[in-house]
Design a protein that fits this description.
Largest sheet of chain A: 2 strands, antiparallel
CATH architecture of chain A: Orthogonal Bundle
Number of domains of chain A: 1
CATH class of chain A: Mainly Alpha
Oligomer: homodimer
Distance between the termini of chain A: 20 Å
CATH superfamily of chain A: Winged helix-like DNA-binding domain superfamily/Winged helix DNA-binding domain
DNA sequence: TACTATACCTACCTTTTTACTAGGCTTTAT
DNA sequence: ATAAAGCCTAGTAAAAAGGTAGGTATAGTA
């Protein structure tokens, strides 16, 4: 039940764009350095996000990325789903054509879990995260 | 964010024991056939469950497994956590000693997600699943 | 007592996924 | 013209997933 690093990085990048891209665009190099993530790996994640309409790019020197919408119009669910491919806890919820005997009696549990996850993640926008962090809560664990 | 087959099988086995182990014990061979799961693989999962106090075994001929408690005293969360090792969506929630820069600002999202997942799964017992299926709801998707 | 059915244990193995790295091509501001 | 950016495709090492194989230990039954 782990979120992959791809999903975590995607969300992290989007948040970085929300914070640092208010005027103009942000170079991937800077994001990679700020967040301590491999730039080359990030490139692939950007390509993923780019294929949908979530970010805009500016090519050439002084180019970079920026958000396609305001931060309040992205949910965490949308971004994670894009990066991860799916948020469903079991295959059958995405691909009903391949039922497994072992899951038969448990489908309602999996469906409920799926709802619990998506309901929560759809309830949080990038703006919510910005606001939350602005309030000075430190989540040092 | 997928539940592994190990987790799905573990829950499935526990449910099978709840249904078929009311009098005496249940042989793994029968469970494997009923649920269409490799018996050899199930052996390993039973060993996992056995190390905690969740099932009892009867060795020798006519032996098998039975639940250690009544079905209403198992939550889905407990079983899945045992099989999967953890239900946390990111490593840091289990191992706070290895913080990643990229997750810093997102910890509250991950903690909330973790809570959403465990709250849901702790709210469902094996008995709840039995009752639900007894009501004749078919979850054919 | 022998036989058989069961659980238990350890090792190995194949495939898939993850998380990158490498290197070149394209675009554009200066 | 040059340099700084993004774009694209391929390769790859390590880990995890999902098993298989084969033997040992235990106990009920004939």
């Amino acid at each position: 039940m782990r979120i992959s690093t791809k999903g975590r990085y995607a969300l992290c990048v989007m948040l970085d764009l929300a914070q640092n891209g208010t005027d103009g665009c942000v170079a991937l190099k800077d994001i990679a350095e700020r967040q301590n993530i491999s730039k080359k790996y990030l490139e692939q994640i950007m390509a993923l996000l780019n294929r949908q309409d979530v970010i805009k790019t500016v090519r050439g020197a002084q180019g970079g990325y920026k958000l396609a919408r305001t931060p309040d119009r992205y949910t965490v669910a949308e971004i994670l789903k894009l990066a991860e491919g799916s948020l469903a806890p079991i295959d059958e919820l995405d691909d009903p054509s391949a039922p497994q005997a072992a899951d038969w009696q448990l489908m309602y549990v999996w469906q409920g879990l799926y709802s619990a996850i998506t309901d929560y993640l759809e309830g949080i926008t990038l703006q919510d995260i910005l606001d939350h962090n602005a309030q000075g809560f430190d989540y040092i664990i």
